[in-house]
Design goal:
By secondary structure, the chain is an alpha+beta fold. The chain has one domain. About 15% of the residues lie in helices and about 50% in strands. It has one helix and eight strands. It has one helix spanning about 1-25, and strands at about 35-40, 40-45, 50-55, 60-70, 75-85, 95-110, 115-125, 130-135. Strands 1, 2, 3, 4, 5, 6, 7 and 8 form an eight-stranded mixed β-sheet that branches. A hairpin with a 4-residue loop joins strand 4 and strand 5.
Length: about 140
Amino acid sequence: MRSTLAVAAAATFVIGAALAPLAQAAPAAPSKTKIVACTNAGTVLETKPKSYILTCADANSLLKDLKWSSWTSGTAKATGIFQENDCKPNCAAGKFIDAPATVSLTVPKTIDGNRVFTSITVTTSSNGKTHRQVYEAPRLTK
């Protein structure tokens, strides 16, 4: 009986030792969904940016002072400041107007192997009215 227990214990040890590398070789958890952001050098993937340009071509609409309350694979939510050029009398001479905003990132998709949010909803309030604008996130440039 004692030899049977010794053989069973040895077999358990050998099997455990053989399976240990397999457990360590398990694939890493998928990375978080990101947002494509505009920079002077093109576009980059970001998670929880503190500021975000909404209109890449002219940077006349942007978000700043972002504080993220959640960031999951399906949605991300933040509060911050929406800043937009009033373009009066024209955009070059216009001034930027700030408004408190809530931001939601939604519609995650896998594009070129990257999981990214593709929709940005900005909600502001003024004069007792709620304004909601939906922006399409830019594409990642290579």
